[in-house]
Amino acid sequence: MDQSVSAAELDALRLSLEVAARSVAISLPLALLAAWLLTRARFPGRMLLDAFVHLPLVLPPVAVGYALLLLFGVHGPLGAWLRREFGIALPFTTAGAALATAVMTFPLMVRAIRLSLENVDRGLEEAARTLGARALDRFVSVTLPLMLPGILAGAVTAFAAGLGEFGAVITFGANIPGVTRTLPLALYTAMQSPGGDALALRLAVLSFALGLGGLLAAELLVRRVRRFLGR
Amino acid sequence: MGTLHVSVSKRWPGFALQAEFAAPVPGVVALFGRSGSGKTTLVNIISGLLAPDAGEVRLDDAVLTDTRARIAVPPERRRIGYVFQDARLFPHLTVAGNLRYGARRALCPAAIGFEEVTALLGLAPLLGRRPRQLSGGERQRVSLGRALLSQPRLLLLDEPLASLDAARREEVLPYLESLRDQLAIPMVYVSHQFEEVLRLATHLVLVDGGRVPAHGTVNEMSLRPELTSIIGTELAGAVVEGVVTRLDPALGTAELAVGRGTLQVSLSGVDPGARVRLQLLARDVILATQPVQGLSVRNALAGTVIAIEDDGRGAVLVRCDVGGAVVLARITTGARQALKLRRGDAVWALVKAVSTRGHAFRIAPAR
């Protein structure tokens, strides 16, 4: 009994880490693009994009998961296309859980990256320009390194938040042991099971520890990078 | 000998720039004017970072901006180095990394190498440091080196010394002089300190209220009322250039051949034969209508009055030809009446050896 409990815990932990890591991998490039568009680009509909990016912050996570089901379900427009072209189905898979987590943590990441981009001294980009650096070169050699603290902070915060995403994951991914049953889902399941109190407590403590550790790690990382960048 | 030709206009609510000048290069073209007169705007237009509403910028045969022909070479392809007032070193790179940034992206084969720049600007001990570990003067030297290594055909310096104290300024100025004298890179030097202009400039462009009221050699400009209206009558005075003919190290004086006469000045640290430039402040020049004796004044330059201008505040500015050079003397209207000074009168301009402004400025040998 004890043995199997520990295996379920480990499974949930491993799955949470995997889902969170994959969600960061999905959202990081898109968050960079969104932050750049919202900070530097001038185009009609910018405010709408801004609101859209922040939507997961204010929507019920279940609504986000449901919207994902509609979009990526077998008969959804994106789901049908993915299945036809690549043979990929996202609902009720680990990849799907990662996608749902990515959508939920997206605003966190965009906010952190956007803040760091706003703080980049445009004068340094101008200097790079006079030294012969073209647009993409300038972005990679000057802007991106100066944004690094914000990008890392955003990624680590999103990762920590992603470990605990519940509503969107259970809606889009269901609660399948070993596939989508991450820490919070395992915790919820344990709470619902007779005699699962001890397990629930351990899982809750684990969640607290992971969250706290993640936030501390983010802060330390950002400090180190800042020092490295000479701030 | 080439030319930097600038003829541009740019309008904002409340400020309009309309400037035109052509300056010989290589050399140091000084853009001189008060804060807010439009100097930085002008430099930004030359660099390409700012587009003019209309006009053109040409360096020799190369058209950099021509609004009528719809030419606007982007800054990254202009090959114009820019040393900003605040240095703008990349904080995430070391000094060496900053220096190599422009070198790596240079658009033409290196005319000046890493070793040469490092030696010229004394950067060797700084290479491993981060910008935040540098003093203000060191930062500007690195910024200068970084711009040079991008192999520019023109170097823009926007008040590179403005944020430095006097000591740091003295630390950077000799490097600027050696750049001017050893490299044939044309420079545009923005300043609101006339001392820097005196020391560095080969061509002076006056900038006032978004316009260029006059431009020419420093000597010519020193006689112009447009300059006086920028620096004020207290600092007005003819700039003369001369060759050191004799040195008296014991007394700390030197004799200069100026025009057809000689001038004794307090000056040390120069070699005989060196060309120096100095300003004789108009308020320190005394006029006599006959030779004088028994005075402590070391210099009496015989000359002729060529113009008298009333400054409207109880004084007149007398312009005297002292044999190939012109000096300005500012005397009261009363003194002028007492001397009955008129155009064409013979006068002796008396100049104290110590009253040349600051110290004499070594200038480049004539090209």
- Within the largest sheet of chain B, what's the order of strands? 7-8-9-3-10-11
- What portion of residues of chain B is helical? 10-25%
Write the CATH architecture name of the largest domain in chain B: 3-Layer(aba) Sandwich
- Shape call of chain B: globular
If you consult CATH, what is the topology of chain A? MetI-like fold
Beta-strand segment tally of chain B: 21
Radius of gyration of chain B: 22 Å
**What is the count of helical runs of chain B?**
9
Mean pLDDT score of chain B: 89
CATH architecture of chain A: Orthogonal Bundle
* CATH fold title of the largest domain in chain B: Rossmann fold
CATH superfamily of chain A: MetI-like
Mean pLDDT of chain A: 91
The number of helices of chain A is 10
CATH class call of the largest domain in chain B: Alpha Beta
Q: What is the structural class of chain A?
A: mainly alpha
The residue fraction in helices of chain A comes out at over 70%
Quaternary class? heterodimer
Number of domains of chain B: 2
Q: How many β-strands of chain A, per DSSP?
A: 0
Radius of gyration of chain A equals 20 Å
Protein architecture, described:
The complex is a heterodimer of chains A (231) and B (367). Chain A is 81% helix and 0% strand. By secondary structure, chain A is mostly helical. In chain A, helix 5 (94-118) packs across helix 7 (135-162) and helix 7 (135-162) packs antiparallel against helix 10 (197-229). Chain A has one domain: MetI-like fold. Chain A starts with a helix and ends with a helix. With 367 residues, chain B is α+β, with helices and mostly antiparallel strands. The longest helix of chain B has 17 residues, at 166-182. Chain B is globular. The chains are: A mainly alpha (231), B alpha+beta (367). The interface between A and B is medium-sized, with 22 and 28 residues.
